[in-house]
Design goal:
The complex is a heterodimer. Chain A contains no helices and eleven strands. Chain A is mainly beta. In chain A, a hairpin with a 5-residue loop joins strand 4 and strand 5. Chain B is mainly β. Classes of the chains: A mainly beta, B mainly beta. At the A-B interface, strand 4, strand 5, strand 9 and strand 10 of A face strand 5, strand 9 and strand 10 of B.
């Protein structure tokens, strides 16, 4: 069966520090991969999605970036965090035209 | 206009009640639809897919109306454990992009 791993579960970072969140999927090949963010009390905002290695689509201009160095690895990064980057970050995978399956999420607090 | 819109609620209902949520979508090219459930401070989990003919899973019934561009979720005989936020999702972008509504909060009370 397919599993998705996302880490860390919680993170507290100072403003201006870098960020790297990693997500890996097991048990499937060539999945679509996604990064979402959910601010406190708000809906899910799609940040990036990828349909293959090195293929990244950005939905919202911001100081975040994403990379997919391997088929089942998706990384979310920032060179300098802002206070507004605080939120609940969710990695997800899907097969084509199928529902998403989420990781457990990373709760990021920028101080 | 948001691509997927939901009434945020909260819907406060007594245990055993029937409750219905509606969701509208703006992109007529949306191909598939889903309902997710999200508990507080947890990741969303797939509740059910929504099919054109309507579908039922136990106490849950989902309907799709393409002409009016809305989908619905009906929960019968509500349980305390049904308390959560319910997210409506539309699949577009050639099958690669899922857009979430902001969610409808349900609170089932004794």
């Amino acid at each position: 069966s397919q599993t998705i791993h996302q880490w860390p579960a919680t993170l507290v970072q100072p403003v201006g520090s870098p960020l790297s969140l990693e997500c890996t999927v097991e048990g499937t090949s060539n999945p679509n991969l996604y990064w979402y963010r959910q601010a406190a009390g708000r809906g899910l905002q799609l940040l990036f999605y990828s349909v293959g290695i090195g293929q990244i689509s950005s939905e919202v201009p911001q100081n975040l970036s994403a990379s997919r160095p391997q088929d089942r690895q998706f990384i979310l990064s920032s060179k300098k965090l802002l206070l507004s980057d605080s939120g609940f970050y969710l990695c997800a995978w899907s097969a084509m035209s199928s529902p998403l399956h989420f990781g457990n999420g990373t709760r990021l607090t920028v101080t | 206009r948001k691509e997927v819109e939901q009434d945020p609620g909260p819907f406060n209902v007594p245990e055993g009640a029937t409750v219905a949520f509606n969701c509208t979508y703006s992109n007529s090219a949306s191909q598939s639809f889903f309902w997710y459930r999200q508990d507080c401070r947890k990741e969303p989990k797939l509740l059910m897919s929504v099919y054109s003919s309507g579908n039922e899973d136990g106490r849950f019934t989902a309907q799709l109306n393409r002409a009016s561009q809305y989908i619905s979720l009906l929960i019968r005989d509500s349980k305390l454990s049904d308390s959560a936020t319910y997210l409506c999702v539309a699949l577009t972008g050639g099958g690669n992009k899922l857009t979430f509504g902001t969610g409808t909060q349900l609170k089932v009370e004794l």
